[in-house]
Amino acid sequence: MMMAVSFERYGRLYYLDPGPYQPAVGSKVLVPTDSGPEVAECVWAPQWVDEEVGGLPVCAGIATEDHLTRDEENRAKRAYARVTARRYLEHLVEAGLAVREPRYGGTGRPQLEYRAR
C-alpha cells in the first residue's frame, strides 16, 4: 500500500507506506524525518499499487492535538526567522556589504538573491 502527504497546501508530494493506519484525505499524519516526526496532511488515501514499491518510510501515526500545537508553533518560529534573516540581509545591502539581485525563473515574481561583495 502507498499514500501521499504534503507538508504545505498544494506543495510537493511525499509517498509513505501507511503501515497499520488508514488516514482519510485531509487527515493530519506524522511523517518520520531526520529531525523527528513532522505533521503533514494526507492528500492521497492509502491504496494498493500494482508495482512493488520498497523503501518507503512508514507513517508514524495520526497527529494528536499536541502534535498540531507543536507544528503550529514551529511554523510561526520559522516564519519569524525568515523575516529576521531578510531584514538582516537588507541591512547588509544598505551597509554596502552585500548585493541584492533579482533572479528571474518561470512565472511569478522574481526571487531576490543576496551575495557578499
Outline of the structure:
The chain is of the alpha+beta class and 117 residues long. Helix content is 26%, strand content 31%.
Structure commentary:
By secondary structure, the chain is of the alpha+beta class. It folds into 2 domains: 1-63, no CATH class; 65-117, no CATH class. It is 26% helix and 31% strand. The chain has 1 helix and 7 strands, in the order βββββαββ. It has one helix spanning 65-94, and strands at 2-6, 14-16, 28-31, 38-47, 61-62, 98-103, 111-116. The strands form 2 sheets. The protein has a 5-stranded antiparallel sheet with strand order 2-1-4-3-5. 10% of the residues are buried. The model has no long low-confidence stretch (mean pLDDT 93).
* SS-based class: alpha+beta
Q: Give the low-pLDDT segments.
A: none
Q: Can you summarize the main beta sheet?
A: 5 strands, antiparallel
Mean pLDDT: 93
Along the chain, the helix and strand elements come as EEEEEHEE
Count of the separate structural domains:
2
Short descriptors:
26% helix; 2 domains; 5-stranded antiparallel sheet; two-stranded antiparallel ribbon; 117 residues; alpha+beta; elongated
Task: Tell me the layout of helices and strands.
Blueprint: E1 2-6, E2 14-16, E3 28-31, E4 38-47, E5 61-62, H1 65-94, E6 98-103, E7 111-116
Antiparallel strand pairs: 1-2, 1-4, 3-4, 3-5, 6-7
